[in-house]
């Protein structure tokens, strides 16, 4: 399948500082799993429809779920955004995201956000 998405060495080097430390058994290939997670999210696929080249779909889902719950992906996005020249614009996988100027004035009610 030629339309698979793979993180480059440069991208992995930028992301690696945000990975949690491995406790116990070593993790399966981070590049393969993260590339698979990006592929699924980018294409709006179901986890079970992920190409086999990324490994077991359960591994992709478990990593996405576990790392999401402990804030790894959030730290990645915040860290990558801080590296950029324009703090309001972030390029993620060639997808353009920009916060609306009024978004910073929004307030979340206490208790709804868990705070």
TrEMBL record:
Database matches in InterPro entries: IS402-like_dom, Transposase_6_like
Domain Insertion element IS402-like: 7-77
Coiled coil spans: none
Superkingdom of the source species: Bacteria
One Pfam entry name: DUF4096
Membrane-spanning residues: none
UniProt xrefs under PANTHER family: BLL5188 PROTEIN, TIS1421-TRANSPOSASE PROTEIN A
Name the UniProt record assigns to this protein: Transposase IS5
Organism: Sphingobium cupriresistens LL01
Lineage of producing organism: Bacteria, Pseudomonadati, Pseudomonadota, Alphaproteobacteria, Sphingomonadales
């Amino acid at each position: 399948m030629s339309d698979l998405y793979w993180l480059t060495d440069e991208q992995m080097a930028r992301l690696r500082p945000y990975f949690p430390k491995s406790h116990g058994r070593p993790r399966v290939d981070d590049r393969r799993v993260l590339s698979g997670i990006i592929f699924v999210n980018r294409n709006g696929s179901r986890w079970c429809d992920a190409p086999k080249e990324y490994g077991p779909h359960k591994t992709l889902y478990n990593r996405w779920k576990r790392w999401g719950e402990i804030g790894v992906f959030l730290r990645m996005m915040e860290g990558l955004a801080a590296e950029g020249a324009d703090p309001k614009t972030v390029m993620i996988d060639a997808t353009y995201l920009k916060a609306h100027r009024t978004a910073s004035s929004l307030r979340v009610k206490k208790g709804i956000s868990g705070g």
